[in-house]
Amino acid sequence: MAKNNVLAIVLAGGEGKRLMPLTLDRAKPAVPFGGHYRLIDFALSNLVNSGYLRTIVLTQYKSHSLDRHIVQTWRMSANLGNYVAPIPAQQRQGKHWYLGSGDAVYQSLNAVRDEKPDYLVIVGADNIYRMDFSQMVESHIASGKPCTIAGIRQPIELSSAFGVIDQDGGDVKAFLEKPTHCEGLSDDPTKILASMGNYVFTTKDLIEALERDAANEDSAHDMGGDIVPYFVEHGGVNCYDFIDNEVPGATERDRDYWRDVGTLDAFYDAHMDLISVHPVFNLYNFEWPTYTKADAWLPPAKTTFNDADRRGVAIDSIVSNGVIISGGNVEHSILSPGTYVHSYSSVSESVLMHNTRIGRHTVVAKSILDKDVVVEENATIGVDPERDRARGFTVTESGITVVPKGSIVHP
Ligand code: ADQ
């Protein structure tokens, strides 16, 4: 149990445009991942495993399925004062939606004031990783600074996607949000120290900064673009290096794993890692579990062997509860709960979300099929990118076909 008086805030209002069509009718943090998880489960599991059991989740964009997931999955014992509470944009400070992630926190300060925490742990909802935030809070307290940001090394060519930290012994000298050009690290010019979008603040200092920011008409009211740079100028910023974080059960390979799965190709690659023989990210770390909606009521996965063409198997795959592979062949794929793969079909290098139906004599390759997709008998998908595009499906730069929720793939 964490010792300090901490309230956690999860920023979950991101639109996730680059994950279209998976974000057509759901917020990015609600996008399914790894069979039966949703992206937000990783941030929330990290908070719970760190001992932080009071969390508010700030939502706004198409938040229905996200709200439902949080309420159904992350119910905690309110009697013990523990909760994970989604807070939708409420227009408490003017007739507008959240202007940026800083404004989202500002507009939710009533929940902070009610709780009176000494420290706030504020994290994004879109990344896959394991992290013990209590170690970052210890670093924050030891630094005596009002603001701590978490940093991780990333390739310099990605600098325009990140806040770039220039630090010396943990003392942040400069912070540039998504620069087009910047210098590499002195010991490795090919890398930058990127902000992970995870912050610890001393509550009273953040409230003061947010109130000043709200009155500043030139501000975009963004945590990375405005609030962190404000603290670099006023009071100082401490940098917590993710490499120092130690999580029980982590392997040498996955201890510094952190992925932004914000594009379809990154999302797909992270899935292919999960089903590789030696994945970098180990889902089977039971000492730091990733929690999600309990689907124990679903029947176990089942395979039915088809003697005629010797199919009915899954190789190098993740097969969730409620899946039936009846005489079909599945390789290098992720099957989410409720998927049904019929005879004489072939599914390879694909991500199948909940309740997809794969008909007989079909071929599914290099595809992401969103929930409730039906691939009709004799249809193919992911085999001919031009045809898939002509049928209105998204095909990514690296050639992955993405089929929106509920679509029917005709022969
Ligand atoms: P981005 O991820 O590009 O960069 P942003 O789009 O603000 O920044 O998303 C950060 C988090 O805030 C996400 O979890 C998102 O869902 C959420 N969010 C965005 N807008 C929101 C809003 N209006 N209301 C509520 N939540 C909102 C950030 C930092 C960079 C850092 C990267 C690391 O700004 O400095 O390097 O994260 O991925």
TrEMBL record:
Source organism superkingdom: Bacteria
Keyword Transferase recorded: yes
Reaction catalysis annotation: alpha-D-glucose 1-phosphate + ATP + H(+) = ADP-alpha-D-glucose + diphosphate
InterPro entries (UniProt xref): ADP-Glc_PPase (IPR011831), ADP_Glu_pyroP_CS (IPR005836), GlgC_bac (IPR023049), GlmU/GlgC-like_hexapep (IPR056818), NTP_transferase_dom (IPR005835), Nucleotide-diphossugar_trans (IPR029044), Trimer_LpxA-like_sf (IPR011004)
Example of a GO MF term: glucose-1-phosphate adenylyltransferase activity
Residues annotated for alpha-D-glucose 1-phosphate binding in this entry: Y98, G163, E177, K178, S195
EC number: 2.7.7.27
Pathway assigned in UniProt: Glycan biosynthesis; glycogen biosynthesis
Residues making up the signal peptide according to the UniProt record: none
Keywords noted in UniProt: ATP-binding, Carbohydrate metabolism, Glycogen biosynthesis, Glycogen metabolism, Nucleotide-binding, Nucleotidyltransferase, Transferase
Biological process annotations from GO: glycogen biosynthetic process
Chain ranges of the Nucleotidyl transferase domain: 8-274
Site, Could play a key role in the communication between the regulatory and the substrate sites: residue positions: Q60, W97
Oligomeric form and interacting partners: Homotetramer.
Protein family (similarity comment): Belongs to the bacterial/plant glucose-1-phosphate adenylyltransferase family.
Job description of the protein: Involved in the biosynthesis of ADP-glucose, a building block required for the elongation reactions to produce glycogen. Catalyzes the reaction between ATP and alpha-D-glucose 1-phosphate (G1P) to produce pyrophosphate and ADP-Glc.
Listed name of the protein: Glucose-1-phosphate adenylyltransferase
Gene from which this protein is expressed: glgC
